[in-house]
Design brief:
Layout (H helix, E strand, L loop, with lengths): L7 H17 L15 E7 L18 H8 L1 E8 L5 H10 L14 E2 L7 H7 L3 E5 L6 E2 L9 E2 L2 H7 L6 E5 L12 H4 L17 H31 L5 E7 L14 H4 E2 L1 E4 L8 E8 L3 H8 L14 H5 L12 E6 L15 E6 L2 E6 L25 H8 L7 H8 L5 E5 L17 H17 L11 H4 L11
Parallel strand pairs: 1-7, 1-8, 2-11, 3-5, 4-6, 4-7
Antiparallel strand pairs: 2-9, 2-10, 8-10, 12-13, 13-14, 14-15
Helix pairs in contact: 1-5
Length: 485
């Protein structure tokens, strides 16, 4: 590691901030349930890093040595999912351990963090943890007066220098990588060969798309380097073995039919976890887990009671097992959902509400408003077409060539409207390209999955199934509003 590059003034600034934060909270004695030394927590989360873009998942181009190190020294999860394919609601679910549809304004991108629900950083801080964050943590949106992810530091190195030696710490290691925009050909210039890239079949296989994917990989690698530096700091400080380390992403990659969609490219994320000798090394787990599960996991690891409003389930039992593969029979599915992402519809602030259930064999998606454009309208009040797809060279290739016969299928898959029911047979169609909801062969599967999904939505008090769903369309949008044309 390089020598400290930061001035005493910067260090003093963060020390003062930490002291102010500690004065702000009421530090209660930690719960009697705590056994021995409580672990530190390092939660490292990328911005738009999706599955399967790491070597251990079969990607042969992107290099992620830090992720691989964590997986070798702990657990690699094959079926980790976010609750929402959009930054703000996904992160809100992680922070609270709740489905985002329970979080009122917090179900939308660029929203205000809701009153009421407590976050794991705040609760840990109230119970003796030293807490902080860097770069992108909560949001984008309006935070509370007391930051829901902890006060901000320039980086993890400064945080560690500030941390008291007699307290465990919890740090949210955020990043803005690999969020767009990208420097064109940055991946190729770094030595990547576009010919080695595997293009998913929902996207056109062109030189521009391959180059765009390499640029995405370059930023994934930059995030991995940030995490690698943090691991070195932990080792140098002697805290590595007593730190519960998580490395993951907040939603799928920022390509058409990825981010902002409930297909795997939008909600399936990499996940590796390491925790010294508390976790048997080198395991690979297939159980379905949600990133919202980390809030109750952290509470249990710290010996604290889980708040009653938490809907997620602790992962500690998986950590304590020595097994790989499928472990907990109850972890046979996850639920995901989307409300408003950007201001993308033709003439309103409405979003494209959808919910899904993902099992080993099927993905079922219910679109509550099939009349709306799931990727955004072709024309809207704000000028730009299909605004729920991040602008990119790949998006341009699809839109500029949408009328060519060989490109029409990509435009339909990425930009077209979708029916109320979508069902994908993952054994025959792992890429989720062919909707079989109208196929009589799958009538019973569709019925059972839809009932299972709606039953769980009712149990978790989702306004969309309680007749109050339109409230999501009326919450303020706090992001920068595009110029109306």
């Amino acid at each position: 590691m390089s020598e400290n590059r930061y001035t005493r003034r910067s260090f003093a600034k963060h020390s003062a901030m930490a002291a102010a934060a500690m004065a702000f909270i009421n530090c209660n004695p930690f719960c009697k349930k705590s056994k021995g030394k409580r672990p530190n927590i390092l939660f490292a989360i990328a911005d738009d890093w999706g599955w399967p873009h790491a070597r251990f998942y079969g990607d042969k181009v992107v290099k992620t040595p830090a992720f691989e190190s964590i997986a070798r020294n702990g657990i690699l999860f094959n079926n980790a999912f976010v609750t929402a394919p959009s930054c703000t609601p996904s992160r809100n679910s992680i922070l609270t351990g709740q489905y985002h549809w329970r979080l009122e304004t917090g179900a939308n991108l660029h929203s205000r963090f809701p009153d009421g629900p407590q976050t794991f950083p705040n609760i840990l801080e109230d119970n003796g943890y030293f807490v902080g964050s860097c770069s992108k943590s909560f949001g984008p949106g309006a935070d509370r007066e007391r930051p829901v992810a902890g006060i901000k530091y320039d980086n993890f190195e400064i945080f560690l220098q500030t941390a008291p030696k007699d307290k465990p710490f919890c740090f949210w290691l955020g990043s803005k990588d690999p969020h767009r925009t990208y420097e064109w050909q940055s991946g190729v210039k770094s030595g990547m060969d576009p010919d080695d890239v595997q293009v998913p079949p929902c996207l056109p296989d062109t030189k521009e798309v391959r180059t765009d994917i390499c640029d995405y990989y370059w930023e994934v690698q930059r995030f991995d380097k940030t995490v690698g530096d943090a691991l070195e700091l932990l080792e140098e400080s002697g805290e590595l073995d007593n730190t519960l380390i998580i490395m993951t992403g907040d939603n799928g990659w920022p390509f058409p039919r990825g981010k902002s969609n409930l297909y795997d490219l939008g909600v399936h994320v990499p996940l590796a976890v390491q925790w010294g000798d508390e976790i048997k090394k080198g395991r690979v787990i297939d159980d379905f887990v949600s990133l919202a599960d980390f809030a109750p996991t952290f509470f249990e690891a710290a010996g604290l009671d889980v708040p009653e409003d938490v809907t997620a389930k602790s992962l500690i039992s998986l950590f304590e097992s020595n097994e790989s593969g499928w472990i907990d029979p109850e972890r046979d599915h996850v639920l995901t959902g989307k409300e408003r992402h950007t201001l993308a519809q033709a003439d309103s602030m409405s979003g494209t509400p959808m919910r899904a259930i993902r099992t080993k064999d099927f993905l079922y998606i219910h679109n509550f408003k099939p009349d709306r454009w799931p990727a955004g309208a072709p024309k809207n009040l704000y000028g730009r077409a299909f605004r729920d797809i991040d602008d990119s060279p790949t998006k341009s290739v699809i839109l500029e060539n949408k009328d060519r016969p060989e490109m029409k299928k990509y435009f339909k898959l990425c930009c077209g409207k979708r029916p109320a029911d979508e069902l994908y047979d993952l054994q025959k169609d792992p890429d989720q390209l062919t909707n079989v909801a109208d196929d009589p062969t799958y009538k019973q599967d569709l019925k059972e999955l839809k009932k299972r999904l709606f039953d769980e939505l009712k149990q978790t008090k989702d306004p969309r199934v309680l007749g109050k769903g339109d409230v999501f369309d009326n919450y303020p949008y706090l992001g920068k509003k595009p110029v109306i044309k």
